[in-house]
Amino acid sequence: MLSAAKVRIHGMQDENWIIKDKINQYRGLIKLYERDQKIHEGDLAKQKKRYSRDIRQLRRDITSKREELEVAVYGDKQFLRNAFQEHRRLQLTYMNSQADKVLESIHQENFNKRKQLDRIRYTKKRKMEEFRQIQLQSSELRDRLLYEVGGKLPAEKKEQAVANYVQRANIKKNAALAIKVMYKKILDILKKDSSYFTVVLEALKLDCRAQGKCLMGATEMGQLAMEYLDDRKFEFSKLEKEIKTNMKERERTLKLVRREVAFLTDSFPNLIRKEEATNLDDLYEDPDAVSQHSVHWEVEEVMRICKRLQKATLVPSFDKILVRLKEQRYQTERLMTQLTLNSMKRDALIEDRKHAILMLDSLKNVGQERTAQ
């Protein structure tokens, strides 16, 4: 029988176990123990790392708190270093010193500097008094020399001559500077005049070209207008001749028609009595003359004249011939008026061109005279 302790320790419950089984059992127990030991060591290592990290953080916190405590107790040394950055001597003197000691030392140094300044001011005041006394003595000696010896000393004469020479040199220098300034102003004015006249000449050239183009355009327009006017005059004269001819022919035709009407009126009773005389041409004694001057011939002649007028005026119907003739007459009068206005404008442009040429010549002469001067 296995004891209760062995069973509790090794987990052996059977008495028939052999040594091999026990060895295997012990091996398993050893492996379990080693595994537990490794897990325990890993936990200890992790805990050690965590504690080490916490310790480092605490050390850093302690260091920062100590620095803050030192700043609160002894003052901020970094602030002092920044304040003394531009003062090399103070920075080297009070480096890493306490603020109270630095302030006390600076106050003491300031007090010493003030004492030294007061001492220097007193010395300066005393020296000024001595200088005034010496000036008074020198003036007395100079007066004694002037009034007792008489005349001027050679040094004073030389000094006076040098002063006169310097004064004359200054006067000449000022005169030269004034002349230089005056000539500089004159040169500036001449430069401005040259640039101004250059611009004026360019403007006149452009104006001359523009006026020339305008004159050419006006001349061409006038020539075209004259040609158009001549064509219209020729057509109008031709049309006038045709109209006069047609009017004469119309008057002659009307006379013939009136004569025929009168003849028909006189011969109307004979026409009623004679049934066989149904043709108007049979009423005339001369059949050839009647055929030539019959109403039908006159109508055909008038139609031919109207057709010629229609072709000449390019109208769609005979009713538009008179309207077209009136329109042509209106256009002729308008073109004559436009020609008159263009002629007046051309004359004005010619006058302006002559005036511009005269101005250009005068400006050239003025520029040449100034250049010569």
Automatic annotation (TrEMBL):
One of its GO terms (biological process) is outer dynein arm assembly. InterPro entries: ODAD3 (IPR033192). This is Uncharacterized protein. GO terms for cellular component: ciliary basal body; ciliary rootlet; ciliary tip. The lineage of its organism: Eukaryota, Metazoa, Ecdysozoa, Arthropoda, Hexapoda. It comes from the Eukaryota. It comes from Brenthis ino.
